């Protein structure tokens, strides 16, 4: 299986696993709240890839998606969420937020797991995570 297909599949499967596991640990959220928290948390981290729409002209949305999935060029630029300082902030915030708002905690957890997956994927596929530093 091509790396980009595995990437796409795992970005769907991981939120499903989080969604299912959330039923074991969080009873206070409705089905809709749980769904929104998990799937928005898994989707929003990739919003920072949209910056490339400003700099590169794509013929279609599919071409843009394939660029983000297949190319490592986007990883070399600055991405607001895909960096170690942001992940550190999330890892500190999640336990604190959990005491006040379970929806937000589940959202942040899903967000964080998405970034962890991307980090290890970069480590394995392109064999570097130097672009995860804040700044150059």
Written account of the structure:
- The protein is an all-alpha fold.
- It is 68% helix and 0% strand.
- It has helices spanning 3-25, 31-43, 52-55, 61-70, 73-76, 84-98, 102-125.
- Helix 1 packs antiparallel against helix 2, helix 1 runs antiparallel to helix 7 (102-125) and helix 6 (84-98) runs antiparallel to helix 7 (102-125).
- The longest helix is centred in the C-terminal third of the chain and has 24 residues, at 102-125.
- It is globular and about 45 Å long.
- The termini are far apart.
Topology (elements, then pairings):
Blueprint: H1 3-25, H2 31-43, H3 52-55, H4 61-70, H5 73-76, H6 84-98, H7 102-125
